[in-house]
From TrEMBL:
It comes from Fibrocapsa japonica. InterPro entries: Reg_factor_effector_dom_sf, SOUL_heme-bd. Gene3D superfamilies: Regulatory factor, effector binding domain (3.20.80.10). Residues 1-11 have a biased composition (Polar residues). Belongs to the HEBP family. This is SOUL heme-binding protein.
Length: 276
């Protein structure tokens, strides 16, 4: 299971070096070839296969412009995994940008610093099939906690998305805990992390967030671009304004082998009602 749950390249402390770029391209090529091999076949002229390739190109182009349909975006949620609950308050749409304002219910998370080394990672971390991926170390610590490397030895179900927030030494990665622990006293019922794991349990009180959804592999550059687009849009939003001195959150929903045109990523920021 773990090889299908490891973070995509650049999930957090993304380092856009040449080796990381080559790995992203290799994975993208693999998923393209896999998709082509499982398409519905071809006639002598390659008609069906050509149509399938054209569909992929069209989907990729829509993703690049953030214009994938809401039905398409919804279908990209991994089946069977719990995710924080929210209600859409407002939708904004133009020819070049779509975003929405959501009101989230409270949920609980387990988090780990992405800048602090753990003293006993062999004991606390889950082994990953691709440990060279950026963010894999932090992911392994959280996966270890979730899958039973905690003081109670209790395994829990995987959830989605993987959240990253903050910058530099304050950057952290978080997993959403199962909904059994979302209640007001949920954290008291959750398994205690191992001391050496540096994993911490926290309650997210939810609240109102502006969110932009985009596809592809969420590189550091992509996340920054989406952040700037969202903040610029909020500057002129008639009803909502970004809360000052708060972190932008990157959410990634899919495993690294999901094709770019089927991936769901989000950048969100807390907002409040604009004073008139």
């Amino acid at each position: 299971v773990m090889h299908m749950s490891t973070p995509s390249a650049d999930v957090t402390e993304q380092v856009d070096d040449m080796s990381a770029e080559r790995r992203r391209r290799r994975r993208a090529l693999v998923v393209v070839l896999r998709s082509l091999s499982t398409s519905s076949g071809t006639d002598d002229t390659g008609g069906k296969k050509k149509k399938y390739i054209a569909d992929l190109e069209r989907a990729a182009a829509q993703d690049a412009k953030n214009l994938a349909s809401s039905e398409d975006i919804t279908s990209r949620l991994p089946p069977g995994l719990e995710t924080p609950k929210y209600e859409v308050v407002t939708k904004r749409s133009s020819k070049t940008l779509r975003y929405e304002v959501r009101n989230y219910e409270a949920f609980s998370i387990c988090s780990v610093s992405m800048s602090k080394p753990r003293p006993n990672s062999a004991k606390t971390d889950e082994q990953l099939s691709e440990p060279q991926l950026a963010g894999a170390s932090s992911f392994g610590a959280l996966a270890g906690y979730l899958f039973g490397k905690n003081q109670e030895g209790k395994a829990m179900k995987m959830t989605t998305p993987v959240l990253t927030q903050g910058e530099d030494e304050n950057k952290q990665m978080s997993f959403v805990l199962p909904s059994d622990y979302w209640g007001p006293d949920g954290l008291a019922q959750a398994p205690s992390p191992l001391d050496d794991s540096l994993v911490q349990l926290n309650r997210d009180n939810g609240g109102t967030r502006a969110t932009i959804v985009f596809g592809g592999f969420a590189t550091k550059k992509d996340a920054q671009t989406q952040k700037e687009k969202l903040l610029k849009a909020l500057e002129v939003d008639p009803d909502w304004v970004a809360v000052e001195n708060t972190f932008v959150t990157l959410a990634q929903y899919n495993d690294p082998f999901t094709p770019p045109w089927k991936r769901r990523n989000e950048v969100s920021i807390p907002v409040k009602v604009r004073q008139r």
